[in-house]
């Protein structure tokens, strides 16, 4: 899986420390005749974190957006509060376009 895979949402989210986050919705929501997207009720949100073209780690959305102030990745990189806030904010900007609606709010 590369940073330009067709399964990712269109916009990468730049984070600190040279990281870039790409979001996948599995299964990808389908567009209805009305032009609106209809996500499946069991849609899984995955986040792939890249440094350049190198995949650092792939995780579930809720393991990052969990209410914790920091998240440590497999390579030892620590996502700080600004990274987590950026991922949350810019991630939802894109997911809302695909019909995804938050159903839980994390403090």
What does this structure look like?
With 107 residues, this protein is an alpha+beta fold. It has one domain. It is built from 1 helix and 8 strands. The chain has one helix at residues 81-97, and strands spanning 13-14, 19-26, 30-31, 37-38, 44-51, 54-60, 71-72, 78-79. The chain has a 4-stranded antiparallel β-sheet with strand order 1-2-5-6. A hairpin with a 2-residue loop joins strand 5 (44-51) and strand 6. The longest helix has 17 residues, at 81-97. The radius of gyration is 14 Å and the shape is globular. It starts with 12 loop residues before the first strand and ends in a 10-residue tail after the last helix. The relative contact order is 0.22. The model has no long low-confidence stretch (mean pLDDT 90).
What key attributes describe this structure?
four-stranded antiparallel sheet; globular; 107 residues; two-stranded antiparallel ribbon; alpha+beta
